[in-house]
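ARCHIVE RECORD
Type: protein–small molecule complex
Small molecule: VHF
Source of inputs: curated submission
Record status: active
Notes field left blank by submitter.
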Amino acid sequence: MFKSIIIKIGSNVLTQKDGTLHLKRVAHLVDQIAELHAKNKKVILVSSGAVAAGRSMVQVDKKADTVSSRQLLSSVGQVKLISTYSKLFQKHGMQCAQVLVTKQDFRSREHYLNMKNCVTTLCDNGIIPIINENDAVSVTALMFTDNDELAGLLATMMGSDALFILSNVNGIYNGDPDDVQSQVIRTIGNSTADLSQYISTTKSDFGRGGMLTKCRIAQKTAASGTSVHIANGTKQNILLELNADADQVEHTQFIKGVKYKAVKKWIAYSESFTNAEVHINAGAFEALNSKKATSLLLAGVVKMTGDFKKGDLLKIILENGKTVGIGKAQYDRARAEKHIHDIKYKPLIHYDYLYLFADIEVTV
Ligand SMILES: Nc1ncnc2c1ncn2[C@@H]1O[C@H](COP(=O)(O)OP(=O)(O)O)[C@@H](O)[C@H]1O
Ligand SMILES: N[C@@H](CCC(=O)OP(=O)(O)O)C(=O)O
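STRUCTURE (tokenized, with ligand):
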């Protein structure tokens, strides 16, 4: 039983084969959310489906480029999507709100806290926030990979108990989902194992990121203290059953870690906003990964790239080139260069402002 839940609904759950909205299914999901709301659960909805809904409403010129098509389809389709939700929630005497965001809206801690305040205020007033990426505006490289990334960020930001990611499959399979031999991976922990071996890069008809990104985001969100569940949104009563007793539902669950401190939640999703890098040696990496809370000392720094000031976010890179984390600089680059290799000098990144990416463990 969870008290606060983020529900992410993928395009494929909301649309029929011909691209039109699957009204009966949307209505059933709204009925379930209303029931959860009546039980005093704090529910936040992240809904895809604008582009898919738009596809059934306007004809895109064959010569139009991808960005223009997405802008056209999403801006038309979002109206249809949100008005559908609004009518359905009204039947339950409930109100919902549309919140359209871009990745840029989370770029600094100040912007991040503004977003948190917006969602908190809506929830405090008994309104269901329905959040989607603002596809008409976010067209640059700084886009969310997909709404799974947005939902993960929100779950971490709000400190939600659970994130339900609804797709058109029962969960993550250990092979091709269409192969009868494949089984749903029931639990995923947070030590080492590579899930990419199981997951093909095929996407569902209307989806954006695919299962591999879904899985990476789920793992990252679970590590921040939210229980993550990838389940089939086309199944009857899926939300109610997940909330009542998730163990009884065939789906993939990501075991949650310990909740992060507030600032770490923001750092965890800020990789796109880092301009400088700090390269560290294997010894430093081992120390940072030890059970003991360890800060990054200059002694373990091999080199730095890009300019940075005190308070800037740095990408942490291992000698083999792999990005292993993000952290906030306690002083600028000039000072760091002056004291490089000094074992006693104040850490470049304090543990409280350090976020390390985790690896995954799988149980079928
Ligand atoms: N091992 C796997 N287990 C489950 N689904 C997989 C796997 N490999 C690829 N997929 C595909 O991933 C799709 C779901 O991802 P995505 O298209 O992003 O969905 P959504 O639109 O629901 O976000 C499934 O429909 C399935 O075709
Ligand atoms: N923002 C887009 C959805 C993009 C997306 O992430 O789609 P999906 O992979 O189906 O969750 C829309 O509303 O159409």
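CURATOR ANNOTATION: The chain is about 35% helix and 20% strand.
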